Amino acid sequence: MAKDHGKQIKDDEKYEALRDEGMSKEKAARIANTPNAGKKGGKASKMEERTKEELVKDAKKIGIKGYSKMNKGELSDKIRNH
C-alpha cells in the first residue's frame, strides 16, 4: 500500500513509482496529479514540430527559468528533462 502524501498528491502509488524511477518531487507530483496521466496516446505534438513560441509557453507553464534566452533546441531539452 502506498504512503499517504496528503491532499496535495492525488495518486500516491503513481507518485511513489515515479520517485523510485528517480524523478524529482516536483515532476513526480505534477504527473501524479494530472487527470488520466496513466493513459497512453497523448495529443501533444513532437517537440521538434512545435514552434519556439509554443515551447516558450510550455516553459512558462512548468516554471522553467531563463527560457527567453534559450533557442528552440535548448527549450526542448529543458522541457523534456524538467
From TrEMBL:
Residues 1-55 are annotated as: Disordered. Signal peptide: none annotated. It holds the Pfam family DUF7218. It comes from the Bacteria. Residues 1-29, 45-55 have a biased composition (Basic and acidic residues). InterPro entries: DUF7218, Rho_N_sf. This is Rho termination factor, N-terminal domain. It comes from Parapedobacter pyrenivorans. The lineage of its organism: Bacteria, Pseudomonadati, Bacteroidota, Sphingobacteriia, Sphingobacteriales.
